[in-house]
Amino acid sequence: MKVSRAQAEENRERILDNAAQLFRERGFDGIGLNDLMQAAGLTRGGFYGHFASKDDLAAQACARALQRNREQWQQQPDRSLAAWVQTYLSDAHRDHRGEGCGLAALAGDAARGGPAVREVFGEGVQSLVAALQAQMPAADAAARRGQALAMLSTMVGALLLSRAVADEDLSRELREAAREHLPISVD
Question: CA–CA distance from 8 to each of 12, 14, 115, 147 (Å)?
Fold first, then answer.
């Protein structure tokens, strides 16, 4: 049965939304095409009508996840750095990677990914650095960029490590240490 262009686009969007979440939860290799398509309510047979390969989907889903992160940040009522740090390094963010930061959830996969995934990931990093840089307290642009890079690296690393350890106390310590050593005051 042939579907309309509008339905095909709706299907494609549903695949991307589900893949963005499932890849953040399970990684690129942690879920197969059958399960990805099933999560979108579709069959595997339609996959190649939307994407050239799983790598193509991974790149587009990574872009979608990073886009959603930017949208979530822009919709926050308190967009101060202190509020963002508290939310980013929270227990809830640690525990819900499927809805959380695409950088922390997908960094390992992106590092092993193909050129398209790495390109999209790099663009996401640059975008977030630019947004952070605009809010850094240093006097000149180069110093603000350095602060933004340090902040992003510290926060993503702390979140990633806090997710990787089984010890709840160590998980909390990692995130608290990151908060205390950021290049801004988060009190």
Answer: 6, 10, 27, 44
* 58 neighbors 155 (Cβ within 8 angstroms): no
CA dist 12 and 145 (Å) reads 36
Contacts for 130 with CB less than 8 Å, ≥ 6 apart: 148
Go through 127-141 and write b for each residue having 16 or more CB atoms within 10 A of its CB, e for each that does not.
ebbebbbeebeeeee
Please determine, for residue 187, whether its predicted confidence score (pLDDT) is greater than 70: no
- The enclosing domain of 49 has a CATH number of 1.10.357.10
Q: Considering the chain, what is the average pLDDT of its residues?
A: 93
pTM for the structure as a whole:
0.88
Question: How many domains are there within the chain?
Answer: 1
Q: What is the mean pLDDT of residues 162-167?
A: 97
Query: Is residue 48 one of the residues assigned to a domain?
Result: yes
CA neighbor of 66 nearest in space, from 145, 123, 108: 123
